[in-house]
Amino acid sequence: MSIHFEHSVDILRSPAQVFAVIDDFSRTPSWLERCTGLEKLSPGPNAVGTKLRYAYREGSHTGVMEGEITARVPGERLTCHYRDKLLAVTVDFRMTPTATGTRLTHAIEIVPQTLIARLMSPLIKRHLPAQTTAAMERLKSLIEAETGSNA
């Protein structure tokens, strides 16, 4: 059984400006609190198939998930899939132009891979909305604080 949560925010910047921040993985720890690093393992520009390594801290526990970009359309969508021995996680960002900027929708799907992970599912499901909403608000503040007009 998977866990799914989706949250949208309106950002006063263009889809291209929003995408540029999300697509710069070195910036992820500045808005995603549990992320301690997101490393790009493949050479060249970001593209479908680019390999990633996501390091995180959850309380006193630290971990690493291997991942890759599974969808990438600049200014429209960025999807990454991560996996470790406990969980498979798909993170999807969709950007839709609005009259004042961009509606950014962040969807997360978590699939437990083990019995222990399935037992932790109610706890994950309970904390995921607050974690995601807070991350999206930090991301919105970061993007809107940057210079540049909404174009």
Structural commentary:
- The chain is of the alpha+beta class and 151 residues long.
- Helices cover 28% and strands 44% of the residues.
- The protein is built from three helices and seven strands, in the order E-H-H-E-E-E-E-E-E-H.
- It has helices spanning 15-22, 28-31, 115-145; strands at residues 3-11, 35-40, 51-58, 61-73, 77-83, 87-98, 101-112.
- The chain has a seven-stranded antiparallel beta sheet.
- It is globular.
- It starts with a strand and ends in a 6-residue tail after the last helix.
- The model has no long low-confidence stretch (mean pLDDT 93).
> What is the count of helical runs?
3
| Arrangement of strands in the largest sheet | 1-7-6-5-4-3-2
- Contiguous uncertain segments of 5+ residues: none
What is the structural class? alpha+beta
**What percentage of amino acids are in beta strands?**
35-45%
For this structure, the quaternary state is single chain
The separation of the N and C termini measures 41 Å
Characterize the largest beta sheet: strand count, sense, and whether it forms a barrel: 7 strands, antiparallel
Report mean pLDDT, rounded to a whole number: 93
Instruction: Tally the beta strands.
Output: 7
